[in-house]
């Protein structure tokens, strides 16, 4: 066994992975691979908590796996797999459900948000979503979970439940820590720069999808909301400009100060096109590579089979311990 710390992360295959997901998460995933023992999961079961078109879900799942690979995740270094291929996730979730309180789940911000967005489908899975996420993390004795601000509450719950199980039975789970990478910038909507860039945004001008073509990206940048005045600086009263500067700075690996300096005296229009250019420069090669990878289904299936096997080995070990501790008879 390696003595590297274990790191787990998952993304839902719901399509439209955005530039925000890329900068906030995906972009950093490959850089973790040497330092940590990484597990990257496509959390398809989580996606079912909102209505999905089955054919589309299948397609999105392959797309996300191909995107992982195109962003530099290496199956020789990291474990890449699909959540539903390792049934231990759902099994552990059942056990953990029995030590999770309804009150805890009904208080979750994301549950409240999603319930108000999907009022016609407030299903049990939506409420139980965090317990499945807790299971994803605890099954692998994860030490680190890279997360953005919106998942902080779910990680708190993970720590609470791990601790609760460990004290009710005996030490079983590693209690994970949130891992907030240095370069983990939060990218906001282009249309409404006070809210997060989201793939479920109804205004498609708000987000850049990693599948957007060059023209679409330029068009979206052109219509991006800027602020009054004409100074290109990062400031609390300039959400739009600050967001575009953040995108520019992170994708160029420079500081915000350096980015501001690059745009002294530049017009908003030219600034926006410079941001569009660096986005295109970053995204276009990933898009092409992803399409190449996607064309080789045989290879993708092999990656998935290997990944699931490796994941299952680790997951089974934890689940057996749990089953034993709660009093189930070993089969
Ligand atoms: N809830 C996470 C999100 O929407 C996705 C997720 C599911 C996840 N399981 C996880 C993230 C485990 C980290 C670890 O972003």
General description of the model:
With 331 residues, the chain is mainly α. It has two domains: 205 residues, Rossmann fold (3-Layer(aba) Sandwich), CATH 3.40.50.620; 88 residues, Tyrosyl-Transfer RNA Synthetase. It contains 13 helices and five strands. It has a three-stranded parallel beta sheet with strand order 1-2-3. Strands 4-5 form a two-stranded parallel sheet. The longest helix is centred in the C-terminal third of the chain and has 30 residues. The two termini are 26 Å apart. The model has no long low-confidence stretch (mean pLDDT 95). Bound molecules: tryptophan. Tryptophan (TRP) binds next to strand 1 and helix 7. The site of tryptophan (TRP) has 11 residues, from strand 1 and helix 7.
What is the CA-based Rg, rounded? 21 Å
Kindly name the structural category: mainly alpha
Looking at the structure, what is the overall shape?
globular
Helical element count?
13
Write the element-wise H/E pattern from the N-terminal end onward.
EHEHHEHHHHEHEHHHHH
The helix content is 40-55%
- Please report the distance between the alpha carbons of the first and last residues: 26 Å
**Which kinds of small molecule does this entry bind, naming each only once?**
tryptophan
Looking at CATH, the homologous superfamily of the largest domain is: HUPs
Please report the first level of CATH classification, the CATH class of the largest domain.
Alpha Beta
State the CATH topology of the largest domain: Rossmann fold
Largest sheet: 3 strands, parallel
Spatial arrangement of strands, main beta sheet: 1-2-3
The CATH architecture designation of the largest domain is 3-Layer(aba) Sandwich
Chain-averaged pLDDT: 95
């Amino acid at each position: 066994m390696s003595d590297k710390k274990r790191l787990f992360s998952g993304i839902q295959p719901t399509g439209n992975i955005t530039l925000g997901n890329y900068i906030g998460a995906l972009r950093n995933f490959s850089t973790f691979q040497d330092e940590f023992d990484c597990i990257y999961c496509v959390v398809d079961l989580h996606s079912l908590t909102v209505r999905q078109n089955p054919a589309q879900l299948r397609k999105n799942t392959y797309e996300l796996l191909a995107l992982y690979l195109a962003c530099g995740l290496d199956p020789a270094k990291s474990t890449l797999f699909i959540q539903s291929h390792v049934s231990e996730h759902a099994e552990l979730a059942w056990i953990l459900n029995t030590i999770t309180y309804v009150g805890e789940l009904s208080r979750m911000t994301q549950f409240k948000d999603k319930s108000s967005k999907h009022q016609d489908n407030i299903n049990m899975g939506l409420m139980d979503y965090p317990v499945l996420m807790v299971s994803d993390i605890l099954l692998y004795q994860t030490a680190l979970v890279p997360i953005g601000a919106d998942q902080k509450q779910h990680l708190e719950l993970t720590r609470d439940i791990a601790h609760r199980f460990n004290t009710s039975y005996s030490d079983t789970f590693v209690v994970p820590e949130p891992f907030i990478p240095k370069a983990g910038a939060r990218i906001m909507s282009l249309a409404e720069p006070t809210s997060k860039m989201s793939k479920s945004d109804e205004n498609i001008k708000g987000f850049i999808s990693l599948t957007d073509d060059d023209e679409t990206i330029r068009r979206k940048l052109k219509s991006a909301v800027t602020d009054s005045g004409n100074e290109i600086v990062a400031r609390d009263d300039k959400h739009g400009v600050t967001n575009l500067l953040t995108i520019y700075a992170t994708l160029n690996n420079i500081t915000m100060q350096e980015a501001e300096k690059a745009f002294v005296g530049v017009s908003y229009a030219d600034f926006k096109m410079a941001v569009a250019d660096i986005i295109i420069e970053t995204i276009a090669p990933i898009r092409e590579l992803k399409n190449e990878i996607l064309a080789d289904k045989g290879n993708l299936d092999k990656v998935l089979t290997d990944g699931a096997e490796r994941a299952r080995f680790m997951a089974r070990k934890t689940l057996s311990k749990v089953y034993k501790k709660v009093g189930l008879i070993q089969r």
